[in-house]
């Protein structure tokens, strides 16, 4: 080992040895983070950033330089390790904004740990080896020679120039992954940290409902169908964890995966072309959009960015109609700052882990069976008071990593599904469906069902493309009849059931999570004349819709009635995915829609950011 270290010393010591180790890690990270994998380009984008960092150490640190070199190595290593883990879980290259959510990691550690592969710990190998020989060997070969100040200065200046060449031309790229690959990961992270660019805020007096409707090409019906058809009924909205649309009607060797959802979809209004629009807040973002009809913020979860606002909302609209409003969630209300969200949108009360007491708990709270049983009991109490209620119910038992307890298994899977991520997902969703069936039966037995509008939808994707192994992809290919792609990833179901109102019908119009509020408002006869909203009533505006996407798809991506468009550096180098079949041929997405989608996001950001803060006592 002494001889090997001396050879490295002749290659000119720490100043080149440590960057070499980091370059190896960068190659490892690129193989995971980018479809194209590493190329010679990273020598021009990544190495300069590394050299600048070590030039700073050489210039300012006079003693214990090896400790500082190792410290820098460790920080960069932790960054790359974190980026890889976050990408494998969420499919997004994280920035410093995500670090503000570090306190949430403990609550979802099972999900995080589920994507960690043993080989990822190779990122830390050089630190362990060098640290051992640098600090624990009694006799160490002196291999670290002084380095010329002129060399340090020259290297720093040249590296800074190369970094600028990588960063400046790529600042305008819409696709965050493309931007990171062209800038280099370290440059991209530093650019996001230091960039002071803020989105232009549009004046509140320029944000009008007609302006929003024009961008969406929305034509309001003079006599809306089913307006007030469910007036006075209770509203029960059920948000199902990780529920994707391909599960509806899916059979595994002749066995239904979601028999209760299938029955519900076959007997009522079923919207198969319904899509998630969440951001960094995931489940809590879905809660935000359903209750406000606004888009999620560009950075950070809506609960944190908008949690202090006095938000117009569905609960407030219904309270004006005499409704009591409440939320049921088996996790702690502080998770994702949902306590702030519930105050901002004005729920009368909420029920969280304290109410459910972790009874029959797994993953992040009580089982769905407990959630629905205790919720039904509470709803019966509210119904007995003779006034209508709105209950928003959040299921959690089908949360990633989907490894539910064996005693909760409700279906036997074929051997080929055992021990796979896809198999665990299907089994968890089958249990969630089973629990939902018990809830529906309970509501009917208590006389609540026939007096309620019940809305069921998925909060977000469950099977991320970036986490699937070869056997999982093969199982998805078998189940779908084609390759699993982004269009299935963001496709979630929506079902609306109301006795005496809905009938068996597959609603083929396009919809997204911002559309739920105006749709149920129409059914309940609630006027939105003075309510700014970015969704549309899916029972009336059926010919066209435009769904801007954010965070989990590149900025500038959108879904129209025929295809999913995913932006590249801009519009011209984007990709198209038809919603029907498996074709990738371009059909209808236009640059005008691209620009309108971006404008809609800007209008929503501007409108919500200019809303007044709620009073502290609220």
From TrEMBL:
- Keywords assigned by UniProt, alphabetized: Cell membrane, Manganese, Membrane, Metal-binding, Transmembrane, Transmembrane helix
UniProt binding sites for substrate: 399
The record's subcellular locations are: Cell membrane
Cross-referenced CDD domains: LTA_synthase
- Cell cycle found in the keyword field: no
Where is the major localization of this protein? membrane
User: Any idea which residues are catalytic in this one?
Assistant: 283
What GO MF annotations does this protein's record show?
metal ion binding
Matching entries from PANTHER family are given as:
LIPOTEICHOIC ACID SYNTHASE, PHOSPHOGLYCEROL TRANSFERASE I
Q: Which family does it belong to?
A: Belongs to the LTA synthase family.
**Name of the featured protein:** Sulfatase
Q: Which organism is it from?
A: Paenibacillus pectinilyticus
Q: What is the lineage of its organism?
A: Bacteria, Bacillati, Bacillota, Bacilli, Bacillales
